[in-house]
Specification:
By secondary structure, the chain is an alpha/beta fold. It has a single domain, classed as 4-Layer Sandwich (Purple Acid Phosphatase, chain A, domain 2), CATH 3.60.21. Helices cover 24% and strands 30% of the residues. The protein is built from seven helices and 15 strands. The strands form two sheets. Strands 7, 8, 9, 10, 11, 12, 13, 14 and 15 form a nine-stranded mixed β-sheet that branches. The protein has a six-stranded mixed β-sheet with strand order 1-2-3-4-5-6, with helices on one face. Strand 14 and strand 15 form a beta hairpin. Helix 4 packs parallel to helix 5.
Length: 257
């Protein structure tokens, strides 16, 4: 994070280790549960460059390389993982599977399989045709993932589910929104990926940042939001701002500069 921001926002140093949930920690762009040996990530959007190229927009193909490097760095810290929960939008194109997606998704899943015992694939709104890729690696695509003991429900976040597990959940972990915040110091303005924590119907709501390299995401205080979970006043939500490999607790969104 730029030094000017760190010097100004001393709280980021003081609260750097604050946990989002008990027995959890922010690890790069992932949420890590050491006791469960469970890793949660979201919104990788493999194949995005190819779709933009079809529209005449040329993007350098760096997302796959940087995503793989980011995952390797996470695995170096976690060691062997029991479960990886991918909270939707593993691929990008809605109605087909591009050649780029075939290669990148399969290579990513094989990397993940080397470091974990089980991959949980949750269906995102971009994952209408994820099934063939999942089947290729002997995996299934599901709508949600439930941890009974901790009462945690993992979802993509594009729709609000029904059912007993949702009613019983104490914590909801979603992706979909690609949350970011904008920090200002005089004329200097920078946007950063962020984890968010707030409430939804009395439950803890955790919003994961996107695990891709194309953009920081959506400024949750200034831009239109997509997730139905976030159609509310977000001023009381807390933010963990990300820069490089580090995360910094910045407190409530209403207090951001």
């Amino acid at each position: 994070m730029p030094v000017v921001f760190l010097m100004k926002f001393e709280q980021a140093f003081i609260m750097k280790e604050k946990q989002i949930l008990p027995n959890s920690e922010v690890l790069g762009l992932s949420l890590w549960f050491p006791k469960l040996k469970l890793l949660a990530i979201a919104d990788l959007h493999f194949g995005m460059e190819g779709e933009f190229q079809k529209k005449g927009i040329l993007l350098p193909e760096f997302n796959f390389k940087e995503t793989m490097q980011g995952m390797q760095e996470v695995f170096e810290k976690t060691g062997k993982v029991e479960k990886i929960v991918i909270c939707g939008d593993l691929k990008h194109e809605f109605g087909t599977i591009s050649q780029q997606e075939w290669k990148e998704v399969i290579d990513f899943l094989r990397l993940a399989q080397k470091h974990c015992k089980k991959i949980i694939l949750l269906k995102g709104n971009h994952d209408n045709i994820l099934g063939p890729l999942a089947n290729w690696e002997g995996l299934k695509v599901q709508e949600s993932f439930w941890i009974e003991k901790e009462k945690i429900l993992f979802l993509h976040g594009d729709k609000i589910p029904n059912g007993e597990k949702f009613k019983k959940a104490k914590a909801l972990i979603i992706g979909h929104e690609h949350p970011a915040v904008t920090l200002r110091d005089g004329a200097k303005v920078e946007k950063f990926k962020a984890f968010l924590k707030g409430k939804f119907k009395g439950k803890n709501l955790i919003v994961l940042p996107s695990f891709n390299s194309f953009s920081e995401g959506t400024d949750v205080l200034k831009e239109e939001l997509l997730s139905p979970f976030l159609q509310q006043n977000l001023e009381e939500f807390e933010a963990w701002v990300l820069e490089g490999k580090d995360s910094y607790y910045f407190g409530k969104l209403k207090n951001l500069p």
